[in-house]
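Course exercise 7: structure representation. Students receive a sequence record and must write out the corresponding structure in token form. The form below is the worked example handed out in class, using PGAP1-like protein (617 residues). Read each field label carefully; the graders check that inputs and outputs are placed in the correct fields and that the protein name is recorded exactly as given.

STUDENT ID: A-19
EXERCISE PROTEIN: PGAP1-like protein
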Amino acid sequence: MNDDNQNASADHHRQATQNIGGSAGTTAITTPEEDPRRIRLTLPTGKVLPIIFLPGIMGSHLRMSRARQEKLKRDDNIAWRPDYMFETVGRVVHDPDVRQLNFDPDETEVEVYEWTSDGERFDPKQANDKRHDNVPDTLDDIPPLLMADPEPEGLHAAKNPATASAAQKARWRGWSEVMFGTYGTLLKQLEARLNNATHGSEQINAIWDFRYVDKAVDTWGRPAGAPPPPVTADDLKALASGWCPVHAMGYNWLQSNGKQAKKIAKRIRALIRRYKDLGFECPGVILVTHSMAGLLGRALMHKDYGNLTANEVLGIVHGVMPTHGAAATYKRMRAGFEGASGINPLSRLKESIIQQVLGETGKEVTAVLANAPGALELLPNDLYGYGWLQVRDRDGNTLLKLPREPFGEEYAAIQSARKHGRPLPGPLKPNKSLEGIYTQPAEAWWRLINPDWIDPAKKYEGDKERALEAVTKRLENAMKFHGAIQDTFHPCTYAHYGDDSRHAAYGNVVWEVVAGDVARAGDPLGWTLLEDDGEGRLKVRGEQGVVLTLRLQPPAEAGDQTVPAARSAAWVRGTVLVQTGYEHQSSYEDWDAIAATLHSIVKIAVAQAAQQPESSS
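STUDENT ANSWER:
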């Protein structure tokens, strides 16, 4: 025994890592006969707490069905690969009919690493390592879990087909399902820090000590309410009692978040079950969401959609969630996606490419978004507030605000509930934006949908009325979805969002009369649409035959360039941090947003650990 102790320091020491499939283990290379040292393996604690990241709209890679690939005469089944933007531009920058067919929610699914939900219609064989090299083969090891298995060395060494690289293990975790160029920094930081909280059992790792331990959260932003306590050394020691493997799950962002919640819930339950079947204690998962995935995360907890419980999802961290929608969706369907407008050069490039792919004009964008239930769920709902669509004259006088405010008891009850953060009195009333804006007829100049732009691919065989009926149904369902989840927030919710005047967002959408005698034109609701160029310029005829020209104005409300703070992002319920300095799409590349996320995850994990003895008794 004493000899063992004396020789232990000279032995080969290996720490258990994670294999593809989730099991714990290690790969050891046998030593030459003349090497008497033993291999000593440090075993994991047996507890695992998966962290699951859900990306925002356009943040998941999509592939198309065999039938759609054949119809478009494509060499492969790629529908959307945001990490390969220049290649994607070459594929998709076509007429609106090609865009409509390419981004068809009924003919697309998530590009999962060598897996498909429907083998009859989708070809998973194309989803190999080459297709998933957005997580590069050169991905550095992130100890202790994402470690490349060692390969035999020497003149006659034979490659072991069972070994896997760090990149392949990350791909199995779903990292290649999402836009790694945008989310990779977050995924790598979470993996490195959450699994390296301490050295041994007591000493806090330096990667935590400098920036996080005992640091007030106002280091990273302004608490919206009472500030939560800082991360402590004891918190990190509790975190170090198990593994925190970071997973990502893409989803079909073209489809309804309610529909996708049912699919993601199955994947989450399967992941928990997998870890338990491997012998781990897995008390549940923690979700981290970006943008629209916040709506998906809330739907995961709703009984009609994901129906997950607080014993399966221990908490949710929401980043830049459009809690009640975003008026930018209306703007884009009328006048196209915004071009490069940010401060960050890389973000400007991404914005420019997204504009080219999804549409520079309302005509191009409508062909995609009008047929995509998920995208329509980003439109403002009634809780977004009243009067967000406005008409002004050249002197700044407001001529019209839609939707119009209700009167009497209904108005007072809604305002009181919003002010005090209480549930609304009953489900949402018939949506006033739906009736007053989204489903207005073609001749209403302020309407959302131009019937001529819906179906350039002739999926409805040229029947405009049938196409419009289908869109109207999608819009109604989108508002029903918002009504269903309006009060659904996980009891352990943390969130952060941008409230920055330097990154103005469309809180309101303003049409300004830039030409014509508006004083003689009469009520704006009576104006008749004459021309719409799909780029934010309208001509209308008012009373007495007066012709007016209207221009869509730039965004003016504080936010993150996409989600306005006051009308939408601020209405999340939970422990909330208000931040500045980042743009919506690249928010998780901001170090303060990453810091807020790490703090939130640790606090959720520690709260779960504190409840564990009680729940297991």
